[in-house]
Design a protein that fits this description.
mainly beta, 65% strand
Length: 823
């Protein structure tokens, strides 16, 4: 039984994935003395239902090329210098190997460490949710996913690599891989140690990327103690195991992660806000030292008891310790007139504990056309604790520059958040015919939380005096009730799914400190429709409509203010209502000699949760979440891929429009944002000679606010990439690749910004390509400025963050491969 068809005893496939039972095409016998001329063919994928499949057998790559290089050769797929994979501009968030979740879906861990010559096929699909795959009923949740199908030869032993590199200045990077595939059984372990920010010495990244190995990143940070990404020093390891036995009935899959990170980011930023009668600008320099240590694991076990019953067990556990130090200084002005300056220091230490599990039971009657029943129950816990200290000195000025006043905040903070949640769902699936079925379900979810926040002023050298206005003690209870009815047709050419969901939400907040209780209830009807039509094997039309509710978070409902930044106070709003959003999506795909993809989407939101920000004459701001109407968005994208005159060419055009609504002081501001971009890619490979990849992106941004139409923000952007690899010297690979990024000056950002990141390396293969010596120079021009801009509503931000400067690295990598032989 196939891995993807683990529940085929019930008539539903878990996913449309090829698995390691598939046979690779056998090679015909040839005369080894006859001359052979290799001519690379156009790589044309084929559509198999909702899956796009690339046969990679005709792709010629250099020895020891990794999967990342392979994906970069496939039409429609693009790999950014930081390892992010996109398909026609849409980010791919999950990667499977032979249909199995690998390393908790961190694609770069696989693409930068597995060799490309082990891959038989690459499949691209919109993967359904775990519940949809278990029940066979589509709930509309999708994850853009790549599945790597291994060659049969790679499932008969173990393989791996060990590599390390350094330079005299203290830069280092090391990594190791051990993987074993024996039929259905999978084992893999990866380890990293680096202070370059890259995932090991085998990375061909054109820029500096923060490793997300083991889920590193501050995540829960209630005191705001990070100044950005910086240059991380990382020690990390991950391990994966999966196996299937008893003809595919029983299956286990699990991952374990460990990570330790230290980073020292330094950021300079300018934030410009459009107000009704002025421009409010804030300048800040911030730096931090952030440490994190994390352990995490997850797993699942599938058990098919007999032809009538199946069970699935899931669990996840994680534990994280963080210690942070943060400082910043800055000033603010109205129309270039100074109104305040500030200095701030924060120290914090915290721990995050999460755990949970679920049991799913699937049972059917003996009658093949009879109903199938599902029972699912789950339990989860969270325990977050943060201790910290905040010191802030703020000075305020008159228009003539004289000091008007100053205040100091010197406080200790204790924040805890403990919660337990449990869920239960009952479902029934009844076939109505050969292709049509009806699905009925009811689900309840309950969560109990205890949120405690205490602020203490300093007195007599100790932090003992509690500040009542900055302290709270809440006991919260949430309860969701959901009823669903779905009609689904699974035709080969035409299929649809029509569902209606009745959603009931209750929230009770008891203020233990203030001895008061707030109750809240919400009821809504959420329809969904999906229609798919494939008139032939090369063309597909998709239409999707969905309505959903956006619930306010616990922090947004809190009534006690947050003064972590005394110049920017945040208030909660216990009277928030959930937002209601509706989205329409249309997509057209065609895979012929031209590979084309067209998408159009439109969405509106009522009672959207936005922000009301009040700014006084001294530059002090108070922000509070509020409900607004009038939020909408629209996007159109068109992409095409084609081999023209021996060149692999692709183009992607995007147009987006967003309207956000917010309050600026007492005025309602409608903020409109327009963005257009055109991306062109050209690639050329001459085997054993040269590989060339070129791309260019031109973009335009237009942002304006109704509260002050005289101050629009408009600018052009350019981003270009060029990569050249030379193979003509036997045993050598010579690479050079460069990224150029440029942003035009604007009415609020007074000068253009640009950066050119240029890397180059030379590698030499020894011992039949098992040993590789490599010399690389990164950031050749030493343009070490991480530049970014963002535009949200009436707020425009530009920041510069430190990245690693110029450095060189000499490294050695040894690969090994052992096949198991039958006795």
């Amino acid at each position: 039984m196939l891995v993807a068809d683990r529940y085929s005893a019930f008539g539903q496939s878990r996913d449309s994935l090829s698995t390691h039972k598939s046979k690779d095409t056998a090679l015909a016998k040839i005369d080894s003395l006859a001359p052979v001329i290799v001519r690379p063919k156009a790589i044309r994928p084929r559509m198999k239902g909702d899956t796009l499949e690339y046969n990679t057998g005709n792709i010629i790559l250099r020895p020891n090329a990794n999967v990342e290089e392979l994906l970069g050769r496939l039409p429609g797929l693009h790999v950014a210098p930081d390892g992010t994979i996109t398909y026609n501009g849409e980010v791919i968030n999950q990667l499977l190997v032979d249909g199995e979740d690998f390393f908790s879906s961190n694609p770069s861990l696989i693409t930068r460490n597995f060799d490309a010559d082990r891959i038989a096929r690459v499949e691209l699909l919109d993967r359904k949710s775990e519940m949809s795959r278990f029940t066979g009923i589509d709930d509309g949740n999708r994850t853009k996913t790549l599945n790597l199908v291994l060659k049969e030869d790679s499932r008969k032993g173990y393989f791996g690599k060990v590599g390390a590199g350094a330079d005299p200045s203290g830069i280092y990077s090391a990594d190791g891989l051990l993987a074993s595939f024996r039929g259905h059984e999978q084992f893999a372990a990866l380890g990293f140690a680096s202070n370059t920010g890259n995932l090991g010495v085998s990375s061909n990244a054109g820029g500096i990327s923060v490793a997300t190995v083991a889920g590193l990143g501050l995540g829960y940070d209630p005191l705001g103690t990070s100044a950005g990404e910086g240059i991380p020093r990382i020690y990390a390891g991950v391990a994966h195991y999966a196996n299937t036995w008893d003809g595919g009935d029983d299956h286990v899959n699990g991952d374990y992660k460990y990570g330790n990170m230290l980073t020292r980011p330094a950021t300079t930023s300018k934030v410009v806000q459009t107000l009704p009668d002025s421009i409010y600008a804030q300048y800040k320099k911030a730096q931090s030292v952030n440490r994190q240590d994390i352990h995490a694991g997850y797993g699942n076990y599938d058990l098919v008891i007999d032809s009538l019953s199946a069970l699935r067990f899931d669990f996840h556990l994680s534990s994280s310790e963080v210690k942070n130090g943060y400082s910043d200084s800055g000033n603010s002005s109205f129309n270039d007139i100074l109104v305040n300056d500030a200095q701030r220091n924060i120290r914090s230490a915290g721990s995050v504990r999460n755990g949970g599990g679920a049991i799913e039971w699937k049972i059917r009657t003996r009658k093949r056309t009879g109903p199938v029943f599902f029972v699912t129950t789950g339990l989860g816990t969270t325990n977050n604790v943060t201790n910290g200290y905040i010191y802030s000195l703020n000075r305020f000025y008159l228009q003539d520059g004289q000091l008007a006043s100053q205040d100091t905040v010197d406080q200790r903070k204790l924040i805890t958040n403990r919660s337990k949640n449990y869920s239960l769902s009952l479902s029934l699936l009844k076939p109505l015919g050969k292709l049509t079925s009806i699905y009925l379900s009811w689900q309840t979810s309950n969560a109990n939380s205890r949120y405690y926040q205490a602020s203490y002023d300093k007195g007599d050298g100790k932090y003992l005096k509690q500040v009542d206005s900055l302290s709270n003690n809440y006991d919260e209870h949430r309860s969701d009730q959901t009823g669903n009815i779905t009609l689904q047709n699974n035709g080969r050419r035409f299929n649809y799914s029509l569902s209606t969901e009745i959603f009931s939400y209750s929230y009770r907040q008891k203020d233990i400190k203030g001895d008061s209780t707030m109750n809240y209830h919400y009821l809504n009807l959420l329809p969904r429709l999906e229609v798919n039509f494939a008139p032939n094997s090369t063309t597909r039309f998709n239409f999707f409509y969905v309505a959903g509710a956006k619930l306010p978070s616990v922090d947004q409902l809190q009534s006690v203010k947050n003064n972590n930044d005394p110049l920017h106070i945040i208030l909660g709003n216990p009277h928030l209502r959930p937002g209601f959003n509706q989205n329409w999506n249309f997509e057209f795909k065609q895979v012929r000699s031209w590979m084309m993809d067209v998408k159009f989407s439109f969405g509106v939101t009522s009672s959207s949760i936005s922000t009301k920000t009040t700014t006084d004459t001294l530059g002090r701001q108070i922000s509070q979440p509020v409900n607004v109407d009038g939020v909408r968005n629209m996007s159109f994208s068109w992409s095409v891929n084609k081999r023209v005159l021996g060149l692999d060419m692709s183009a992607i055009a995007n147009v987006t429009y967003k309207q956000n609504v917010s309050y600026v002081n007492a005025d309602l501001s409608r903020n409109n944002s327009y963005a257009e971009s055109l991306l062109l890619n050209v690639g050329k490979l001459i085997p054993d000679k040269i590989s060339i990849n070129l791309s260019g992106r031109l973009g335009y941004m237009d942002n304006n606010s109704s509260i002050n139409t005289s101050t629009p923000v408009r600018y052009w952007t350019q981003q270009h990439f060029a990569g050249v690899t030379l193979y003509f010297i036997k045993g050598f690979d010579i690479n050079t690749y460069a990224n150029y990024f440029w942003q035009q000056k604007t009415s609020v950002f007074g000068k253009s910004t640009s950066v050119l990141l240029w890397n180059t390396d030379v590698s030499r293969n020894f011992l039949s390509n098992l040993l590789v010596a490599k010399f690389q120079i990164n950031n050749l021009l030493d343009q070490n400025s991480g530049i970014s801009r963002s535009n949200t509503g009436n707020i425009n931000t530009e920041s510069f963050t430190n990245i690693l400067g110029r450095y060189w690295l000499f490294s050695l990598t040894w690969r090994f491969d052992h096949k198991y032989h039958r006795k």
